[in-house]
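Lecture 7 notes: from sequence to structure.

We start with a single chain of 274 residues. Read the sequence below before looking at the structure.
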Amino acid sequence: MSKKNKVRPVPWDAGLPSGGVDSHAHLDMPGAFAGRVPEVLERARKSGLARVGNVFLGPKAYAENVPLFDGQADVFFLLGIHPGDAAKAEQDDLAAMERAFRADARLAAIGEIGLDFYWDAAPRDVQARLFADQLALAKELGKPVAIHCRDAYDETMAILADQGFRDAPLLWHCFGGDAEQAREILSKGWMISIPGPVTYAKNTALREAVAGIDLSRLLLETDCPYLAPEPYRGKQNEPAYLVFTALAVAALKNLAPALVWQATGENARRFFGI
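Now the structure, written as tokens:
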């Protein structure tokens, strides 16, 4: 059979129970799921997902796209200004975020926020200031934080230390580091979210790190439409495919998939207060 016609397993055939949580999805990403959000969420429910966290990248995206989730009570929200958009942030954006959080109980966390020195789409000092300002807003609102960090690990850790975030409710979104970084993050009292690349056989450092992280500190995410796990690598990701990430984590930790599924789901519910 040609690779083009490869038959891939469907996630609901894994038989995982309802209770899983996708802690980080971008269902409102322009063009990605246009007109298909209800059917995507239905596939997620069929696969055992009980909740999906949609991440709005800035207050304008939230204001424009929140109607996509009318009637979808199992979707909760994150809202933050991505570091790649730091140079485009407007003076009123933080105030708009604060208003949104105070008005909408479905907004559970500030994120994704942080530093991205891989793309360097905004000056690093501008990214750092916006990151610190959003951390301060999270403290003021009493909300947890989801961190974006790419090629800026030391700088991110320094800002978090300066802002007094040790033992604060913080989730390291889309963790792609090694065991040493995982240990340091956990030593600060934070949580770690694992994406689809943990299923990639050559991603040795991440797979070794996950094997050593206590299950009580783990969440799972798709970061869809990006980072689809095997066997859908290279395809558009969606919440239902979180099943394959859970199966990989379970194998790495020598645990039953249903146990990992339910435990990471409960960790997410506790972290986000949902």
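The chain has a mean pLDDT of 97. Keep this in mind for problem set 3.
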